Amino acid sequence: MTIEIILAASFFTLLGVAYVKGYDIVRQYSQDHLPQFYLIMATIRILLVATTFGLYVFFTDNRENTIRFAIIYIIMYGVMMVVTLKLRH
């Protein structure tokens, strides 16, 4: 279970860094496109998170580990959303 937590934390860290760096680039070159950037990144993030979670649930046999992972994953997603919004707004 610890390897899943480490991978999930790495996944959310990469998503957060991609959002922050992308936000900086869009803000520097075209501030008018920030709302579209936010919408596209929010869509990409939720699709990647849902796909990753779905694959984990599909390929895991242990129900208790799946439930624990789901709770941790949802908490990490919420924290990522709050941190990226606080960093850029």
Please characterize this protein's 3D structure.
This protein is mainly α. The chain has one domain. The chain contains three helices and no strands.
- Could you tell me how far the N terminus lies from the C terminus, measured between alpha carbons in angstroms? 34 Å
Low-confidence stretches: none
Series of H and E elements = HHH
Please, how many helices?
A: 3
| Amount of helix | over 70%
How many domains? The number is 1
Q: What is the 3D form?
A: elongated
Largest sheet: none
What amount of the residues lies in strands?
under 5%
Can you lay out the helices and strands and say which pair or pack?
Blueprint: H1 2-29, H2 34-59, H3 63-88
Short description, anyone?
The protein is mainly alpha-helical and 89 residues long. It has helices at residues 2-29, 34-59, 63-88.
Characteristic terms for this protein:
mainly alpha, 3 helices, single chain, 89 residues
